[in-house]
Amino acid sequence: xxxxxxxxxxxxxxxxxxxxxxxxxxFWRLRERLPRPNLQDTAKITIAVVIPARDEAEVIAxxxxxxxxxxxxxxxxxxxxxxxxxxxxxxxxxRAGADTVVRVPPRPAEWKxxxxxxxxxxxxxxxxxxxxLFTDADIAYRYPDLVARLVTQAEKGNDLxxxxxxxxxxxxxxxxxxxxxxxxFFKLYPPAWVAKxxxxxAAAGGCMLLRRSTFERLGGIESYKDALIDDCALGRRVKAVxxxxxxxxSDRGIYxxxxxxxxxxxxxxxxxxxxxxxxxxxxxxxxxxxxxFLTYIVPLWFLSTPDPLVGFPxxxxxxxxxxxxxxxxxxxxxxxxxxxxxxxxxxxxLLATVESALNYWSGKGGIWKGRVQDN
Length: 375
Description:
Layout: H1 4-23, E1 45-53, H2 60-68, E2 74-82, H3 89-96, E3 100-103, H4 113-122, E4 131-135, E5 139-141, H5 146-154, E6 160-163, H6 172-188, H7 191-194, E7 207-211, H8 212-217, H9 230-240, E8 245-248, E9 254-256, H10 263-271, H11 274-277, H12 282-297, H13 308-331, H14 342-361
Parallel strand pairs: 1-2, 1-4, 2-3, 6-8
Antiparallel strand pairs: 4-7, 5-9, 6-7
């Protein structure tokens, strides 16, 4: 019995990694990419862009300008919802080319801040809009055909096309921790599973192109107005009305202009919504901690055990974690040696999840630009 338990734990850890490698939609390969644009010139499309912005004077011009430069057989109408900014966000957005800047009134208690801003932005979109593009104030579009690529993917029968924006990966903290953000997101929501009509639903909030008729059918933003993780809530609503979702990447074309130079900033980003992801359940938190420990920390056991029936499976599990992380490191041009640190990176995310729960229980959950959003 003394040897059985550690051996059982070691082999269970390896079994988890074999499942992740072969049977979870091959999420780790990160192969989902936007197609080349293929739109007919005769198919004139109107796209209403809605950008929620709160104190985004540093980044809003680049976002609006990059959208203004998009080319294709469509009309873009850009609305910026200025969410009680204390800086020059509204004026800068207008100068950069926004068609409309809407001043967002004080938020009702039952609404989350970003969703209330989006709702106000929607009041200014043209009635003729075929699609709505929700995009964040720090998301820029590097190439002029990216919106055309989004529409091309939508025209293949997808009601929601959503792209995980390429986060900045320049500082040491970013190189260590940012690739894992996308890796863990795709592990939770494998794009191959999201693409199915039923089952797993998700979206990446920085860039979401939504068919307007589907959006109206699901009840608009009001149907999920209290969701902290608004993008995945939208994905669930799309699936609920029988819609299809495509989730993928853009090869650095759609990217965030916001930097994460310090590990504490990345930790705060994770902590903002991690406990909400667990439905604020202490039981799910304990289960997550146990599962993460078994999956990511146990593989390091091979470093200290003389027992080959513990050392072999844990070494194999660690090597699998290294191999599976390599596509994420390549996507973000992070050093390959970071792949060997997956257990330590996972421990960082684990601590941020615990912090998220502590913040929630202390009444400080989901803080974003001075607002407590998760309480």
